[in-house]
Amino acid sequence: MPTNPNGALGSLDYMKEQRPDLAVKSRETAPNFGSPDRQKLIDEVTTITQTFHSNSSSKRYDYIFQFDIKPRSYIIEILLIITSLILFQEIKHTQKLVFLASKNMHLSEDWLI
């Protein structure tokens, strides 16, 4: 966004002075994912991670235990989020492969699942 879109498809025409500020904001702002409970979990994990990396190695582990974490439910929730993201990427990749294959060769109905 730091450069003028010159009418590119899907572009937004912002003033030259606004574009650098919006570019910085877009790097600092994270989107919300799913339900409020899931977003709360993501925010807590982000906070823990940032705190963990911002402190010296001797103090790192003290900060992790300051949060009220229910290990099983949070770990399961995190694993579900990660798994769903991975599966979503795999589905998109598979759809692209099937589309490309169907353009290059005739597929019989028996082949499609």
From TrEMBL:
It comes from the Eukaryota. This is Uncharacterized protein.
